[in-house]
């Protein structure tokens, strides 16, 4: 197995050399084929949080555009792991295409913003994360309506921590919330991008989450558990885990946006 892995690494290195030195279209095609499982993996992860009418095959098609872009922009001489470099671009390509289709109802977007604002207001007043009942009361909603709203938001949300955010500096570069948390085993492919302050803010915001929401974030984004598997760990339904995930993401977005405006 080790010998097979080494042979494959040598073959990939040769493909990168041929493509980058001469633009060999055959080498480019083989690179796309070699790394296409990345697209299927990302599309599969994202499809679990999307409405049933969004086909995984369509997500794969959108993601392939991101993979091709990553291959064209990748610099093998920097000794950065290509998979790390490519996954953000694959996700970004899928998200951009979904946004262009505008499949999320305006009412759902509006309700998500209302919950974000109410949560931020109450957290500022109470100096802690508000409960579901407190947010529902602030919005003058019944608990059933509030839970139903969370379900609708979660069913229409692209994996939100993977969403690309544009940096506020003049570079116009983009970074996902998840990418701003340091991975000690990965080399940052964008050395010129200073995200230290954002990482600190996000870490603080995650630390302020209620324990169950914090656990859902950790299990989903870092342990790669599915919502069903997290439900088994917590002893709750997959639907409830989806609601906890949605609340966590809304709190994090609200916290970061509030700090950015200060």
Radius of gyration: 20 Å
The name of the CATH topology of the largest domain is Butyryl-CoA Dehydrogenase, subunit A, domain 3
Number of helices: 11
State the share of residues found in helices, binned by percent: 55-70%
Number of strands: 2
Q: Can you tell me the overall shape?
A: elongated
CATH class of the largest domain: Mainly Alpha
Q: How far is the N terminus from the C terminus? A: 54 Å
Q: How would you characterize the largest beta sheet?
A: 2 strands, antiparallel
Summarize the topology.
Layout: H1 2-22, H2 25-47, H3 56-73, H4 82-101, H5 106-126, H6 132-138, H7 143-155, E1 164-166, E2 174-176, H8 196-207, H9 211-221, H10 227-234, H11 238-261
Antiparallel strand pairs: 1-2
Helix pairs in contact: 1-2, 2-3, 2-4, 3-4, 5-7, 5-11, 6-7, 7-11, 8-11, 9-11, 10-11
Write a concise keyword list for the protein shown above.
Rna Polymerase Sigma Factor, Chain: A, Butyryl-CoA Dehydrogenase, subunit A, domain 3, mainly alpha, 262 residues, 2% strand
């Amino acid at each position: 197995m080790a010998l097979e892995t080494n042979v494959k690494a040598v073959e990939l290195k040769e493909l990168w050399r041929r493509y980058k030195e001469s633009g060999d279209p055959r080498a480019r095609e083989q690179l796309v084929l070699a790394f296409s499982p990345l697209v299927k993996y990302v599309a599969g992860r994202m499809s679990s949080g999307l409405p049933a009418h969004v086909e995984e095959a369509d997500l794969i098609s959108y993601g392939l555009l991101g993979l091709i872009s990553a291959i064209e922009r990748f610099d093998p001489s920097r000794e950065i792991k290509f998979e790390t470099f490519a996954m953000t671009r694959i996700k970004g390509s899928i998200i951009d295409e979904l946004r262009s289709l505008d499949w999320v109802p305006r009412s759902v977007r509006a309700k998500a913003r209302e919950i974000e604002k109410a949560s931020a207001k109450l957290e500022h007043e109470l100096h802690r994360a508000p409960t579901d009942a407190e947010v529902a009361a602030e919005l003058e909603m019944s608990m059933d309506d509030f839970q139903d709203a969370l379900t609708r938001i979660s069913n229409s949300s692209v994996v939100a921590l993977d969403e690309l955010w544009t940096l506020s500096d003049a570079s116009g570069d983009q970074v996902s919330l998840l990418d701003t948390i340091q991975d000690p085993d990965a080399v940052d492919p964008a050395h010129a991008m200073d995200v230290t302050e954002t990482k600190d803010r996000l870490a603080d915001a995650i630390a302020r989450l209620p324990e169950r929401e914090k656990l859902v974030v950790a299990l989903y984004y870092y342990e790669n558990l599915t919502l069903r598997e997290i439900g088994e760990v917590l002893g709750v339904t997959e639907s409830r885990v989806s609601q906890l995930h949605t609340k966590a993401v809304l709190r994090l977005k609200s916290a970061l946006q509030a700090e950015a405006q200060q």
